[in-house]
Every structure is written in C-alpha cells, then in structure tokens.
Design goal:
There is one protein chain. The protein is an all-alpha fold. The protein has helices at 2-43, 50-70, 77-101, 105-136. The longest helix is centred in the N-terminal third of the chain and has 42 residues, at 2-43. It is a multi-pass membrane protein. The transhydrogenation between NADH and NADP is coupled to respiration and ATP hydrolysis and functions as a proton pump across the membrane.
Length: 141
Amino acid sequence: MDQTLQKALDQLDQASAAVRLAVQNMATAPGGAEAAGNAAHAMSGGAIDPFVFRFAIFVLAIFVGYYVVWSVTPALHTPLMAVTNAISSVIVVGALLAVGIAASGVAAGFGFVALMLVSVNIFGGFLVTQRMLAMYKKKDK
C-alpha cells in the first residue's frame, strides 16, 4: 500500500513539474512572434510596425485555413469535422490551464470565456458530425 501511495506521489510530482514547464514555455512562446515582428521592424528601417507584421500573419492564416477547408472533397468533410473537434479539445486543455493557473482575475475570466466558447464549439461539432454520418446511413424501407 505504501509503495502505491509513493508511486502516486511521484507521478503527481512529475505532473506538477510538467505543468510548471508548460507554463514557462507558454510565457516564452510569444517571444518568438515578438522577435519576428521586431526583426521586420528593424529590417524595414522602422516602416513596419510589429503589430502590423503579426496581424498580417494572422490574416494569411485565415486565408490558408479557408482554402484548405474549401478544397476538401465532400467525402472527407466528416473526418475533417472530427479533427476539428480534436483540435478544440486541445484548446480546452489550454483554457483549463488559464483558469487554473491564472495570477489575476482577468486571466481567469478570459480562460473561463474560452472554456465556454470551445465547449459550445465541440458540442456543435459533434452534432454536425452526427448529422453528416446520418446522411450516409442506408434508409430502412
């Protein structure tokens, strides 16, 4: 019994260390985008604002996502919806981390809003997937 308890405590310590490392990595991840924006600002002689650079990347990502989704054949729409739900479930983990580790009420509030929105997204995605699968079902006569 003591070995099981010790093993559980060791696993809990490992998990908390992994969470601390993830939080530390989350804090440094925006640094890459900031560095790229500052590099564009410096290379252009100050003509490109770092915000404009990051906003341009965001807009390009929207267009890429739009064309990727619309170029999928109709037979693959159901698996695409399933993958979208899987990605949304990863967002749930991030929202839970934001709510649980938040140092301020604002961060916890945004995490809670993100959690609610992604929950609606996942639920709606499963409903749409269910309806799409029902279209392929053979009808009983």
